[in-house]
Amino acid sequence: MQPADRKQDMRAVQFDQGRLQIENIVDIAEGAAHAVLSDAPAFRAAIARGADFLEKVLREDGTIYGVTTGYGDSCTVTVPPELVAELPHHLYSYHGCGLGQHFTPAQTRAIMAARLASLCKGFSGVSVDLLEQIERLLKHDLLPLMPSEGSVGASGDLTPLSYLAAVLCGDREVWRDGVQVSAAQALADAGITPLKLRPKEGLAIMNGTAVMTGLACLAYTRAEYLVRLSTRITALASFALDGNAHHFNETLFSVKPHPGQQQVAAWLRADLSSNEPPRNGKRLQDRYSIRCAPHVIGVLGDALPWLRQFIENELNSANDNPIIDAEGEHILHGGHFYGGHIAFAMDSMKNAVANLADLLDRQMALMVDSRYNHGLPANLSGMEGPRATINHGLKALQISASAWTAEALKLTMPASVFSRSTECHNQDKVSMGTIAARDCLRVLELTEQVVAALLITVRQGVWLRCKCNPSAALTPALQEMMQALEADIRPVEEDRRLEPDLRLLLERIRNRNWTLYA
Question: Among the options 65, 163, 225, 517, which is catalytic?
Answer without folding.
Answer: 65
